[in-house]
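FW: tagging you since you asked about this chain on Friday. Here's the raw sequence from the shared folder, copied in full. Didn't touch anything.
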Amino acid sequence: MNAPDSFLDRPRQWAGRRVIFQVHLWSGLLLGLYFLVIGLTGSLIVFRGEIEDALRPQLTRVSPGGALGAVQPMLDEAAVAFPGARFHTVNLPTQPRRSLSIWGHDPKSRSFHVYFDPWTGRMLGSDLAGDNVTEWLYELHANLLSGQTGQQVNGIIALLVGLLLLSGLVVWWPGRGRVVGQGLTLRWRAGWKRRNYDLHKVVGFYTAVLLLITVVTGIWFPFKAPFRWMAEVLTQSSAREDSPVSDPAHRGQPRITVDAALAATGQVLPGVAPNWIRLPQGPEDVYSVRKRLSGEWQLEGMNYIHVDPQSGAVIRADLHAETTLAQRILRTFFPLHVGSFGGLSTRILWVVLGLAPGLLCVTGTLMWWNRVGRRMARPGQAAGQAAATEPQSPRPAVSESATFHRS
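HL: got it, structure written out here
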């Protein structure tokens, strides 16, 4: 019997399984806490907007009435209230009871937000991003509170988490004809150690594919270049996306207002309300306005209209329907990562999914502690400790059969 057949039919007798088991065991112990924290913070920020509404309704909720006010006066008022600040984004309300927020950096380069009632134009208040609970959770999840360096570290660790998940599937495989009876069975009447083992393997199996999706899409955030290359190779189309520059013939002229730029986008996707504006920062930058069509995976939308800041002409419209296949593939990564592609139902599913790493971490640690950790903590148990680090032993202490099936 060759190796593949041996693994498929009698996986416990396959020599490579012990090595993969050790990889799964120790990578789980080393990465368990990280996996737990990333999972929990990911679950929380799925409903980031709703959490902000509950914690700070005075800044995020308004009473609709009359007509929506002009945006430029609000931006001007924010500039007066916060001298020296540089504002880069305006988030327009997508619901009548939502406030308008302007994002920027203060003179100390700290990110902060200013909130307005879009109906009356009244300033509601401001906050520093560092003092915002959901912003802190997002920064912890996305970059470990360490900026771009933390984001890259996150991506590298995510690669190891992917290895942890794949090795777990190999260890889980019970053999052909035994998937339902052994691989997917949770024995509630067995001893607690067996129940703990069954819970670990069943939860791991049912969440592995979805967790791998979040891991791969998470790696994409800091390391986009390899994914662009792969998408271009597979589809033979361009994956590059960039913003156009302003018309050199009009540079130096007075800049049009934000409201004029919004009005100019009315000719593209007429009847679709804009929800986001990126403000020009340098002489070559343009106004970029985002719109969302019904059914698009990304809650914020996937259509961008770029307006010259001096002439008010639409320079280019990047509509999702007109993107290349490579661009469409890469545009699915963010909604797949946050679970927004199916609306409320998938967002709820992703919240539950984010709890799975914590459960796997706890059940896996209990299995290790019950068989090995307890011995290592006791004096005179050198044999147990040695067996844990010597997988070539004829009867290793850290074998899945010994670790999981004692009760």
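FW: The first helix runs from residue 3 to 9.
HL: agreed, and Confidence is low (pLDDT under 50) at residues 382-407.
FW: great, closing this out.
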